[in-house]
Amino acid sequence: MSENQAGYRYYEPYVSQFDPCPPIRVKSYDVPPQLFMPFQPPNLPQFSPHEALKYGTLWPALYSNYIPTGERLKAGEQHG
Fold this sequence. Notes:
By secondary structure, the protein is an alpha+beta fold. It has one domain (7-79). The protein has helices at residues 49-55, 69-79; strands spanning 7-11, 27-31. The chain has a two-stranded antiparallel sheet with strand order 1-2. The radius of gyration is 17 Å and the shape is elongated. The two termini are 22 Å apart.
């Protein structure tokens, strides 16, 4: 899948001068890969049973790697 479809998206929320908390300049959210697969194609490749338990899905096309929020924000600063 292309970078525009699956993965993480970044945005810059509005920051008010009257906000009492330190601003968060860049926020991120996960875009799961199943949103871009309207139906299950035939003969989709599968993980082995051991790998499927490790990754939490039988199909590599539906696997989405978890990246901790702090690391996503560092990457988002490069995007934003």
